[in-house]
Amino acid sequence: MPLDAAPQPPAILVENLCVRFERRGQPEISAVNGVSFSLDRGKVLTILGESGSGKSVSLKALMGLLPPFARVSGRIEIAGRDILKLPASKLAQVRGGEISMIFQEPMSALDPVYTIGQQIAETIVQHEGTDQSTAMARARQLLERVAIPSAARRLKNYPHEMSGGMRQRAMIALALACNPSVLLADEPTTALDVTVQIQILMLLRELQQDLGMAIVFVTHDVGVAAEISDRMAVMYAGRFVETGTVREVMHEARHPYTAGLLSSTVHGGLRNQGELRTIPGSPPSLAALPPGCHFMPRCREAVSRCASEPPVVVPNPGAMVRCVHAEAQHPAGGAPA
Question: Number of structural domains, the chain?
Answer without folding.
Answer: 2
